[in-house]
Design a protein that fits this description.
This protein is an alpha/beta fold. It contains eleven helices and six strands. The protein is about 50% helix and about 10% strand. α4 packs antiparallel against α5 (about 80-95). Pfam families: ZnuA.
Length: about 230
Amino acid sequence: MAREIAGAQIVVRNGVGYDGWVKKILASDPNPKRKVIVVQDLLHLPESTKNPHLWYKPETMPAVAQAVARSLAELDPAHAAYFAANVRKFDVSLQPWHLAIASFKAQFGGTPVAVTEPVADYLLQAAGCDVKTPWNLQAAIMNGTDPAPQDVSIQNQLIKHHKIKAFVYNKQVTNSLTASFLSKAKAENIPVVGVYETMPTGDSYQSWMLTETNALRNAVERGMSTTVLK
C-alpha cells in the first residue's frame, strides 16, 4: 500500500485524524507534482472534528468527485470536458440515495435511535434521527477504550425501556460490549440496522449507502432488522 500511495499522481485522504499514516507516507516521499485531496479541507472541517467517518456525509462524495475531476484536468487538460461530464453522471447516480434520505427525514424526522459507534452518525443526522447514545460511549467503542459505566448504563436503559426506534450496529467492529447491546436489542424486539465502516464486497458506494438508508427506513417503518447479524 505504501508503494502505491507514494507512486500515485492523485491521492485522496480523509483527514481529521483518521488516516494520519497516509500523511506520513506522503511526507517521506515528497513529490511536488502529486495532487493530494484532503476531504476534511474540502468540507472546511476543523482538526477537532470528533467523527472521522466523513464518507457517510451526503455532501462528501460530490465534493470529492469535483476535486478529483479538477486534479485530473490539471494532469490531462485535453480531457477536462470528459472528466466534468463524469462528475455530472456521478452526481445523478447519487440522487436515489439523497432522495431516500430526504423522504425518511420528511416522514420520520426526530426518530430516536441508538448506535454502537459513530460510523453512520452523519447519515443518521442527515435523515433527521436523534442519536441518543452518549458520545463518550460511541468514542470509547470507536477507539477501543473502556467506556464509563454510567454511559453503558444509559445505553442499556435506552434499550430496556424502548426509548429508541432502531439500534444501529457496526457489523465490522464488534466486541463483547457491542454484542451485549445487540443481544439486548434483539431480546426487546428493537429492530437492528447493520452498517459497515468500509464498503462491503460487491457493492458500489451508491448501493452501499442506499441499502443502509433503506434498512433504516424498514426498521422504523416496518420493524424489520437487517439480516445476518451476529
